[in-house]
Fold this protein.
Amino acid sequence: MRSFVCGLSEPWVTRALRKAHASAAAHAFQPVRHSWQSTDADGSVEKMRGMALDLGTRTIGLAVTDELGVTAQGLPTLERRGLRRDLEALTEKVADYAVDRFILGLPLNMDGSEGPRAEATRRFGHALEEKTSLPVIYQDERLTTVAATRVLLEGDVSRQKRKAVIDQLAAVLILQSWLAAQPSLSHETDETP
């Protein structure tokens, strides 16, 4: 079975994700059109890609949607090298993956308030928006790193290997959470009684 979270191809990550996504894999996958997607002249869904960021002090976890905006795929984690270099690296990713929006994990406090990390994240998001001219959408990321750690622990992944992919998996979870929150538009059918 191939996990729908692609880009994490190590066997130990695949096992962990397979266990975490067992219920999703048990059901037939039906693509849906989300309200944030538009249609082409022929009625087909316009291809769009969002990129999620799990912004840390040392690294930035990355994930992108597939072209239809249905699944989340992890990308290699970026090492932080200063704001200017971080923005340049993300601008390259925009070109590489044809990204049209960013979903930036917002580290809210447990009571929903914004602390210093959330303020720093918003400053980074503003700079990213100015640099790329793409919209930045903030997604509550409370407990995503905890959830990512739990997935990897349940998959019996060693501490060293967890450290290598934790930010990437957190970005995947942020993106999946955002995708799940998007209202889908029902497809019109030509059913005749």
